[in-house]
Amino acid sequence: MVKLNKVLKGSVAFLSASLLLAACGNNANSKPAEKTADGKTKISFLSTWQINDVRPPKDETLVGQWLEEQLGIDIDLVTIPGEGVSSKVNSLITSNQLPTVLLTTGDKSDIAGINKLGKQGAFLDLSQHMDKLPNYKKYLEKNNALAQIEDDEKHIYAFTKFFTDENIMYTTPILRKDLLVGSEFEDLSKIKTVDDYTKVLKYLTEKQGSPAFIQRNGYEGFMKRVTPLWNLSHRTYYDYESDSYKHPVEQPQLKQFVEWLKELRKDNVLHPDWAVMKDETWEGLLASNKGSFTVDRMNIIGDNNFDKSFDWQPLVYPEINGKRYLQPKTPYISDSGWVINANAPKEEIDKALEFFNFLYADENQEKLAIGFEGKTFTRENPNTQAGIKWLIQIYGENAGNDKAELLFKHGNQAFTRVQTKLDIEAQPGTFPKVMYDQVDKIKKDLGGFRPDTPVLSFTTEELDVLTKSEAGLNTFFDENIIKFIEGQRDMSEWDSFINEAKSKDLDKVTKVYNDAYKRVKDRMK
Questions:
Q1: Please, which pLDDT band fits residue 403 given cuts at 50, 70 and 90?
Q2: Are 245 and 484 in contact (CB under 8 A)?
Q3: Same domain, 30 and 147
Q4: Which pTM was predicted?
Q5: Are the C-beta atoms of 343 and 29 separated by less than 8 Å?
Q6: CA–CA dist 425, 41 (Å, integer)
Q7: What's the total number of domains in the chain?
Q8: What CATH number does residue 266 fall under?
Q9: What's the pLDDT score for residue 337?
Q10: pLDDT: is 258 or 138 the higher one?
Q11: Which of 263, 295, 366, 396 is in Cβ range 3.0-4.6 Å of 225 for a Cys bridge?
């Protein structure tokens, strides 16, 4: 049984504005930068990625060491699990030790929140430093991203995360086809409807003797990856069909989605830890033949992480009530980014600007994304489009490899979780040919991918409304959705739940989102 407090504990606040600005009040730009014994400028980084394990320090990664050598800096990196973000960041603020760079990828580090704190003096206004960021400027222009990240006064405070390449399908439903050989489900093209999905999942569960459906990264990760199958989310989201923002409680398919998960959970098809499962547990189950369906990364196939007999294959989105929703290029909204502390010493700020400009340089993409040939990868893998084969995986044929000390130890994912175009444009070599075939199928036969989710920027007044109303609405929603799926609340109470949710300032919340979206559309005309 899922414990609600454990599930919701990961939904942390990014930063307390009052604490942050108090710490920033005593401007430190005039202070000298800290130097190492060999004269390198020390740059402090805090990575607040929502992860459940602590990644290795940069000194243990080839890319981390390479960045230091190329830029003449000493990177003081701290990576912390998602559940510790709020307390760690706030402790640094109150002790006046806010780092030079915050790799802000937590739930509340969206562009709107960053812009608000930037306007108040917390983060560096990048629009005043574009002469030092030619690669980033080029990236913004190439991806038509400027209108989505600047505030209403055309200030820029964030380095954006990736904008998805239309030829890459990073996250999709995948299953073990080898377990279906000889069954009525062997031909995956016949798995069309949500009822077909249910039958296949029950078959796989019975065959393996353990729940077939597993997901990682807890409740947040589960909902981000699975809800798009039903054109839903667990937050106010962009509904591409109506070209507007809606909360899931406004959508009629939400009830059917919850009933589907409730049935799978009751029949032990959905893993009992679905809302709390950590990344490493998920990978361990997949590797140990105890999970056969997940909605996740396509490079599970290309990486050859697991036993060679595991034939992972993609599925198309299911038809629901005779309709198949368009598949996202990725279910993640690119609405967060990284920031530079506006009150750091000037020399550290200059070095941080140089660092980010380096990250966005086209010629650096391969090393940042996949490391070094012969050390972290080899170009000898016929199953991938670019012939790249990892040498650093901890499962499957590389389990005994002394280079495989820790998953992702090669560089960027361990170092900063850097995900600009770095992963999306340079990592395709890890994806299998079957993924590109699936992309072609979606484009040609299934109506293509859904439109990209807009990136919004809110006014101070709108943020105040969201601060007062949205957290309560979302907490109420999460708690009750989990209760329904776990059988702790009866479905006969569904209408009452919907009415309760709508009474929690839902109209105010969705109006803020749609007003902000209208401004984005007006700016892009």
A1: low
A2: no
A3: yes
A4: 0.72
A5: yes
A6: 30
A7: 2
A8: 3.40.190.10
A9: 73
A10: 258
A11: 295
Based on the fold, state whether residues 132 and 242 are members of the same structural domain.
no
Q: Residue 268: inside a domain, yes or no?
A: yes
Higher pLDDT, residue 298 or 312: 312
pLDDT for residue 144: 67
Residue 409 is which amino acid?
A: K
Six-digit token pair at 408? Answer: 């992702």
Tokens of 335: 């609405």
Q: Which DSSP symbol is given to 453?
A: P
60 neighbors 409 (Cβ within 8 angstroms): yes
Amino acid, single-letter form, for residue 98? L
Same domain, 86 and 117: yes
Range of the domain at 262: 171-301+308-322
Domain membership flag for residue 313 = yes
Q: Report yes or no on 452 lying in a domain.
A: no
User: What is the rounded CA–CA span in Å between residue 336 and residue 3?
Assistant: 29
62, 193: one domain: no
Residues 124, 56, single domain; the answer is: yes
Residue 3 belongs to some domain of the structure? no
Neighbours of 8 (CB within 10 A): 18
| CB within 8 Å of 32: residues ≥ 6 apart | 345, 347
Q: Let me know whether 18 and 148 are in one domain.
A: yes
Most confident of 23-37, 181-195, 415-429: 181-195
Q: Is 144 helix (H, G, I), strand (E, B) or coil?
A: coil
- Chain segment 203-253, per-residue pLDDT in tens: 999 999 999 999 998 999 999 999 999 999 999 999 999 999 999 999 999
Closest to 258 in 3D by CA, of 235, 226, 236: 226
Query: Is there a single domain that holds both residue 83 and residue 131?
Result: yes
Q: Look at residues 390, 384, 370, 397 and name the one whose alpha carbon lies nearest to residue 306.
A: 397
